[in-house]
Here is the input.
Amino acid sequence: MEVAQATVDPTAPVALSKLTVHYGPVRALEGVDVALPCGAVGLLGPNGAGKSTALKAILGFVRPTAGRVEVYGLDAARHRRAVRRRIGYLPERDTHLTGLTGFQAVAFAGELSGLPRREARLRAHEVLQYAGLGEARYRAMSGYSAGMRQRVKLAQALVHDPPLLFLDEPTNGLDPEGRQEMLHLIRELARHHGKDVILSTHILHDAESVVDWVAILHAGRLVGAGPIRQLLPSPRPTYRVGLTGPTEAVRAALARHGITGELDARGEGVLSLPEGSAEDRLFRAAAEAGARLWRLKPHEPTLEAAFFHALDVHP
Here is the structure.
């Protein structure tokens, strides 16, 4: 196996150095080079982008064709057990053994992680309480709802108190209330309990409510990485506006002033001003078009905008 020689950040929870994974002729990952920082990080990408393969490589489930993976400075290929002790994993699909209660499933996961039986049982109670699974922990999981099963998986990931959590589609199958509760727990883990969290999801709204830093994969390659704001196309001032007036005249006036964006049939939308421009440019454009500017509100950059910009730049 070829080993990349690129320098890896020893302070990063996870660092991928020229990571390449091929399944025969299929290039699942190709030269991915990124250090994921502390805190909550989103691992994003459309279906088939390579997210699952990246997670498997980090966890040691697949051997890279080339490159290197490090977790807290440890080579994942050489120190698999030490790396796995530092990781809690919530898989996308249910993997529970038949017939176990929620408590038994979490305590068993603790023992598999190396905890003595007594400590595993004590920790199981603690993390199930944190995950919001009360007396139901003593019931068979066969009768659990999707939300309850997700809570058990989160508890299993936490039971051995790892510093790093991999959460693969943690809101999968949850109703809106359950989704909000799960996202709240994840935010708490990252912001108040000192956990490093890598959230892999295709639901951009979920990621945006938890993370500030993302890595975006597309067709096996890294197409964007960094704080969400830095991944946007430019630092142009952006506003959510409402304009009432003759449509063609409004569009022409906006274009003359270098203002870009789209307005819907009601004259509402998000417009970007040339860098360094003041809001009065919008007022002048509206006056020239004989339109009324009735709404003007600064528009914060969104993860969706950063995501699709990254995909557009790297088709």
Summary: The CA atoms of residues 19 and 32 lie 5 Å apart.
